[in-house]
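# step 3/5: fold
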Amino acid sequence: FVKEKKKETKRFVFTFRWRELDRSYKLFILVSFVFALGNSSDVFLILRAKNLGFSTISTIFAYVLYNLTYALFSFPVGIVSDRIGPRKVLASGFLIFTVVYLLFGIINRSFFLWLLFPVYGIYMAFTEGIGKAYIAGIGPPEKSGTAFGFYQTVIGLRTFFASLVAGLLWTYVSPQAPFIFGSAMALVAGLIFMIWGRRKC
């Protein structure tokens, strides 16, 4: 006389409404998109090192130094972010990127690369994980998956276009042009984030 109860099957319906997303999140997407337009693949850093006369071995060591700096600074920067908030840390990261990319564009001696590569690692520590923490802290928790997914989509699309633009600038303008362009985009993004973000966030 035992009967199995019929289980209700929930039908999944994908919905995405831009207007329902948090205003602070929309601002961060805009800032990320503007910043990302000038943030081309790290391959261009390697090409720039070779362009300035670095040997293959020296380029590898410089890139290892960048990764080592990134790893060493990530933990203390995370602690700072917990204390002062991720928005200030991210804004600082945009500023660091602005200066580093500008210097990558204007230097003419390879010696300075030994300083620029580790500072670029500091920029990564200020933005990579902190950006995800910032997204997690804005908007309703039930939409966090959508927020992360849309953010990664934007970043993925920009990687292609940013590198395409950088390649065109490198080929038809000069090897310095992609970095000066990237520095300008980072400066604009940082100003938007600091000025408008202060009002909205």
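# step 4/5: annotate
The chain is about 75% helix and 0% strand.
# step 5/5: archive (pending)
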